[in-house]
Amino acid sequence: DWNRLIFDMECLPLKTFEELDSWSSGDLIDCRVSTVPLADRKGRPKGIPKTLVCHDMCGGYLTDRFVQGAEDPLPFGFYHWQYIDLFIYFSHHFVTIPPVTWINAAHKHGVKCYGTFITEWDEGKVRCHKVIESEESLKKAADKLVEITKYYQFDGWLINIENVVDGDKVENLRKFVEYLTSQIHQAIPGSEVIWYDSVLNTGQLKWQDELNDKNCMFFDACDGIFLNYNWNDGKLQNSLELAGNKGRDMDVYVGIDVFGRGCLGGGGYNTVEALAAIRKFNMSAAIFAPGWVWETQGKESFIENENRFWHLLDSYLPSTEIISLPLSTTFCQGFGKKYNLLGDVVHEGSWYNLSLQERQPTCTNAQFPVVPEDQPSIMPCTEDPFSGGACLELSGNFPRVDQPLLFRLFDTSITLPHEDVIVSYTCKMVDNTNCDLFLKLEVQAEDGSNQVWILREKEISKPQPNMTVYTPTEMVKDLPNATVSTTNGWATWNYCINCTAEVDVHVKSISFGLESTNAKGRQSVKIGQLQMIPKKDLESLATRDYVEEVKIEELSEEGRCRITWQCPSEAAVSYYNVYSTANGSKTLLGRSKTNCFYTETRYKGSVSIQPVFYSTIPGKTTVVK
């Protein structure tokens, strides 16, 4: 059924009560289901406020709804994941199921992704009352929401009831929230339900802009409350005291409307005024509609303006740390002007698929002192990716001839395994850059002593105390990413770090550095990929870097097909390339995050599937006639 096929290729909301009531997962392979588990990252210490982003942009379900991506030359993307704890996908449809592209991108960075359950105004009141008509109906609706959450593999719900509720049904609404929360906790460990500040204990629709005795019954029934935007210091103090008495002071998310509607500071680039006021009370924040940047500031300048927006908030948004291996990234943001693989162009033309976003740095330009013109810079570059749609360009002027220029990319808390770890990076010097590149790892030994590990092409004649220097190794020459290679100006360097001693060693940060004794002017280097992977994980790919059980199922007379396959090393797969080959010409049909791909037109010749492991390691291509 091609209509069902189209539905399986798009992520869409449920718009009516009847759609929710009749929803079932079915038994087809569903590409809308997330395959990316929630990544490990260091949790917030007790007493540190949290931050959520509520993504409300142009009604939702734009080109982000397409499972296999879209051709979008000026897309919206989010890549400041290090700042936030929760990501809510919002629309004004009854049941907003997050597109799988957003679930995948959030999970890759250890951020929980929530959907939205919303009823609004007169039409919404009818729908809301169908849900809470009886204990049976409210439990059935809640059970459906839990099933949907578990099926699509996201993490919870924002409950937004913006209609008057009949007084005799308010208790049922509370029971709905409480039952949904308890059931989703049982089904999905770590899941949450958050209530939006709207309906009161009387059923009246009246936003409070604070937690108080009129809306606290709903806060008590779930995991948190998202306050409306017209608060003041007094209301924040009231909210903090009431939540604090319950031991839940961090569960109140104070709303900030980036469009500025009644919000302190007026939103936009002055969102920082509202955030500063919230943090003065050490309270959690809910940033609503940061897509303002894309919608109002010019899509052509989105990256520059997006970085400006989040840079202004940086001092109030503590970043998180990566805590586990493998670490592998090409710095691709999930969109680009072309798709490259190992320095070669595979597909020319714009593309957008957030499922293919790679791990983004946890450190930004905020680390550098603000000095016009001379300020160092860490910026994505979509003109010349190594693999994917972007690389990372590092540039700056040397502060002194004898002082290296450092670019901190990741704050980490990684305990290295007691085995060999392969570290790899790929770089390209830009224009007339005349300097040497090195990778710097700040590590802490089990006894608390700090050390510096430098990975570079050549030895250092007089290393500093507590410094260990690693040079490229031949130990990895038989592994898939092995050789020190040069492609289109890109050079890849591999290092083997021996971690077999019984003492624990913790990597605390990862930086790149530039050094030179005679460099003049601004120096630039592009970083195409960075990997830290246990050697045994790479060795296992040597005999398992392929796909099998490829099946092609024709779905229409026009030749529309569903292609499925299996991969023995699926946990290491970043994505799959799907090609068609005819008359000696190989064409990329697309890329897939899952082991399933749909074609809309008949292909001629053969189809081939190629897994790409750890972002940059192409596997064997399996051809099917």
UniProtKB/TrEMBL annotation:
Origin: domain of life: Eukaryota
Subcellular localization(s) per the UniProt record: Cytoplasm, Cytosol
Predominant cellular place of this UniProt entry's protein: cytoplasm
Role played: Endoglycosidase that releases N-glycans from glycoproteins by cleaving the beta-1,4-glycosidic bond in the N,N'-diacetylchitobiose core. Involved in the processing of free oligosaccharides in the cytosol.
Protein name (record): Cytosolic endo-beta-N-acetylglucosaminidase
SUPFAM superfamilies associated with the record: (Trans)glycosidases
Domain (Cytosolic endo-beta-N-acetylglucosaminidase TIM barrel): residue spans on this chain: 62-339
Entry annotated with the keyword Cytoplasm: yes
InterPro entries: ENGase, GH, TIM_ENGase
